[in-house]
């Protein structure tokens, strides 16, 4: 009786492993196919864009507005200035002329 139960459990374990292996293979095949589809679509989109650029077919883009360009330069200059600014910490002197520590 124990031998048949052990055989059944072992058989179920093997079937479980086979099912997992099949599922992993199925997922791998579908992932590879999905990646190939994405790769093909991306290649077509890039080729189309390059062809449009070479033919000068991107004329539907509006040139930048001079006011918008000036605002962009101003924002860029402010951002650059903020990057180059160092925050200063002022340490006060005590009545004796010595710099006070942060504890006092």
Supply the key terms.
mainly alpha, flat, 104 residues, 2 helices
N→C terminal distance: 85 Å
Radius of gyration: 35 Å
Order of helices and strands: HH
Mean pLDDT: 86
Gross morphology is: flat
Oligomer kind: single chain
- Poorly predicted sequence stretches spanning 5 or more consecutive residues: none
Largest sheet: none
Give the total of beta strands: 0
Class from helix and strand fractions = mainly alpha
- Report the sheet-strand fraction: under 5%
Helix tally?
Answer: 2
Itemize the secondary structure elements and their pairings.
Layout: H1 2-55, H2 66-84
Walk me through this protein's architecture.
- With 104 residues, the chain is an all-alpha fold.
- It has a domain at 2-63.
- The chain is built from two helices and no strands.
- The longest helix is centred in the N-terminal third of the chain and has 54 residues, at 2-55.
- The mean pLDDT is 86.
Summarize the structure.
The protein is an all-alpha fold and 104 residues long. It has 2 helices and no strands. The chain is flat, with a radius of gyration of 35 Å.
